[in-house]
Amino acid sequence: MSRINIAFLVAFVGALVWIFLLSPNSLDRIQRGALSTFRPTIEASTELEEAIENFGDQKYTKTDLRKMLTDAELQRDKLQLEVLKLDELLEENNALRSALNYVKNAPLKLVPAQVIARKPSTWYNTLIIDKGALDKIETDSPVIVPVGDYAGLVGKVSEVRNDNTAVIILLTDEMCQVSARIEGTADQGIIAGQRGSLKIQPNLSLPLEFAPELKDAFQAQPDLLLKYLPKIAASTKDRNIISSGAGDLFPENLLLGKVIDFKLGAIDAEAIVKPAVDFSKLKNVFVVLPEKSKEELEKEGKQESSSDSEVPQVSNSSVETTQVSSRE
Known about the structure:
By secondary structure, the chain is α+β, with helices and mostly antiparallel strands. 38% of the residues lie in helices and 23% in strands.
């Protein structure tokens, strides 16, 4: 036997002798101290053992299960709403950023605006924006949106209600008439909406993800009618229609739509035009401001009229002096 083993054996025997020779009180204190030291470990072990033994023995009533299901569905709906709000905020942020870039780079003087009101019964007639007299919006100001590399015409301001709202009449309304021409040709006419087509109303409640085959039908929008075209213009099908700038109301080269069909008459022809702007879901638009406001033009007109009325007058004394000198 090695010396280390002999030393451990002697120590173990000495510990036993010491414990047996202790008084009962000392032994009791040692037992209580050991128990208090290992109690947390013992309790945790006991709880784990009971949990394992009772696993699968829990029983729920139908009422409990319904309540648990309802709580889970409410939590799911709450999370879905939060996701939708975040998506809307992200979309709005991207739209505002695009609007700022468009205003900065556009050659026209623009005021960005948001659509704040629109009725299903007049969906393709009018809408209301959140800009008014405070932003120098005037009646007949053109309204546009970016469409690819073009500026697409939405309509014009028909009424400035107050400092912060204005009414827009849309190009799809027959009362909004625009001088237009077929791009790449000299063929011109007048384009506007069609009365019968305004009976089309958007379906705002149909979840298209459940019926994708009906998407085109429910997102259909009225076509435009381009009148007073020469008959030879029938060969220009599929060409873009742009504003001609005649009349000085709408800037030239605004995109209006694309020719999809022709109707030949006795004297002239009419073109059916598919709008370039998606009128079914307008959210952000841009109002084109004139280079000079009506007030500035009125002031200039008054100044010109006052300058024309001021004729230099010659005094009587100067006339008499001239006459005397001429006699001499």
